[in-house]
User: What shape does this take?
Amino acid sequence: MSPARLASGIEPRLRGVVAERLGIGPEELRPEVSLTDDLAADSLDLIDLGLALEAEYGVVLRRRALESVRTYGDLLAAVVTARRRARRAGAAPIVARARIVPARGNGGLERSGELTPYEVEILVADALRAGPGARLEMELLASTADADLAATRSRFAWLARRGVAVSVQRDHRAA
Assistant: This one.
């Protein structure tokens, strides 16, 4: 798919997300509009915008790419590049059911769906909030590739250093 065609498929949704997050009208977004100077977006707005776009498109926007974004056109280019990179990698979505079990007390938290970068961030925050001794139990679809299973385990393994036990496995009941 050509970059222009990919951009034209992304741009309407991008325009909507940016307009909503920055509280402006979609008509104000032109390629040359400065997000910070013209639209008064601060660094927190840009972080929020980046997270929203990662969730919306299921991509990872590299920090260096986001730091170089000045205009709406730059932002569009960064999202197009991230989408192209994800397509090249053949990244099929990883679907999981996750449960966070606190160290003490009843209850817990359950989530399910695609492991987008935004969902991963929420799971990590919830697991850390549950504190040392908590458990993050995750079941991926039975059809999940070995490489995706290993990557998911690796992605959450560092939580063990913060006292959160992590278990990632395939859900063979759903096979």
